[in-house]
Write a structure and sequence with these properties.
By secondary structure, this protein is mainly alpha-helical. Helices cover 62% and strands 3% of the residues. 38% of the residues are buried.
Length: 376
């Protein structure tokens, strides 16, 4: 019987990005800054970098999900069925449990598709692709990553009644029904499908006898390609970098790549260093990050309601009300928040650390449960 190949380095990297992800969501609920944290005309370097470091989370998570599918060693028909059922399960979770954890309400007039949504659809898409040779699947993924920015000039409005389809495929945006129901397509399927397919092809490299050396070379090549393409400033990201008031902010502009949808340069900027780190982690064993990385969905489903609940409690003690937190915080107009709501970055970081530490024991318990039992 085929058995799953489980690499500690992959789980440790996944655990690291899950921990960093919690920083972004803690900032969402607790920060005293309500605007765009990547707007270099309005934010400090510290706030920009706090947001920037979390850019690594989604691409690494989706990429490693593709690699994990390859490493599962399941026969193709069985793997295809697994990816479809897992993808549908993730879509259900996104539209119910995750949505309610973020919004803390049952008013489904406002809905959204974020990383779990696109992860689910990408798994369903991968279920069809895996019937092709692994190199072909990987090549398709790389081609999508390299070329999808050519589609940037196409706007959803040009499709009329089919606007929703382009929002789903490539252009993040909002659709609203006549009844007032709103759906926000935050994560676009096509580029993220490319990341997952590339990850599936990458899984074959994780079986290479000189894995660490291969990963080191690939990570350096991707990071170097990012630097070269970004310096040329012609293709790969719709937001060109520019000279700023000083060297620091010029560097930040260089790093300020588009996530929605993930541009070619955004993917190179994040996955290149991540693959380099994966090479360095090749001989590492154990540690708290391994625990988080072994149970990423369990961690994800716990951290949102925990962060949100802590924000509600803090708002009640400091402002005597929390009604403004019974929605999706980034979507709530800032004027609905109390004038002095939120905390500076030092407090946000302390809350983040407390959240992550508090999740360790539940995650360790669930990881041990998974080792003992194989049923779903």
């Amino acid at each position: 019987m085929n058995s799953r190949v489980r690499l500690d380095s992959v789980d440790i990297l996944r655990g690291l990005v899950m921990v960093i992800m919690a920083l972004d969501h803690t900032r969402d609920f607790f920060s005293d800054f309500a605007g765009d944290p990547t707007d270099l005309s309005k934010v400090s370097a510290a706030l920009f970098l706090t947001r920037w470091i979390t850019h690594f989370c989604a691409p690494v998570f989706v990429f490693l999900a593709g690699a994990g599918a390859f490493l599962s060693n399941k026969p193709v028909p069985e793997l295809s069925r697994f990816l479809i059922t897992r993808g549908l399960w993730l879509l259900l979770l996104e539209l119910t449990v995750v949505r309610c954890s973020i919004c803390f309400n049952l008013d489904f007039k406002w809905n959204f598709g974020q990383v779990i949504w696109v992860l689910g659809f990408s798994m369903i898409g991968l279920a069809g692709l895996i019937r092709l040779p692994v190199r072909v699947v990987g090549a398709i993924g790389v081609a999508i990553i390299l070329l999808h920015n050519l589609l940037d000039p196409i706007r959803a409005q040009s499709f009329g009644a089919w606007k929703w389809l382009w929002l789903f495929l490539h252009q993040p945006g909002v659709i609203q029904s006549d009844s007032g129901r709103v759906f926000f397509f935050a994560y676009s399927f096509l580029p993220w499908m490319g990341v997952m397919a590339a990850g599936y092809g990458f899984g074959a490299l994780l079986r290479h006898p000189d894995r660490a050396l291969v990963l080191m070379r690939l990570g350096l090549a991707m990071t170097g390609l990012f630097v070269v393409l970004r310096a040329i400033n012609i293709y790969g990201d719709p937001r060109p970098w520019a000279q700023k008031q000083d060297l620091l902010y010029t560097v930040l502009s260089f790093l300020n790549c588009q996530k929605y949808p993930p541009s070619l340069l955004y993917v190179l900027m994040t996955l290149g260093p991540a693959i380099l780190l994966l090479a360095l982690l090749d001989r590492v064993r154990g540690g708290p990050l391994l625990v988080y990385g072994r149970v990423p969905m369990f961690y994800y489903l716990l951290h949102f309601p925990l962060i949100h609940l802590c924000a509600v409690i803090a708002a009640w003690f400091t402002h005597g009300r929390f009604d403004f937190l019974l929605n999706f915080p980034p979507a709530v107009p800032p004027e609905l928040f109390p004038a002095n709501y939120g905390y500076g970055l030092p407090v946000v970081y302390l809350i983040w650390i407390a959240i992550v530490v508090s999740l360790y024991l539940p995650c360790r318990w669930f990881a041990q449960l998974k080792r003992r039992r194989n049923d779903w």
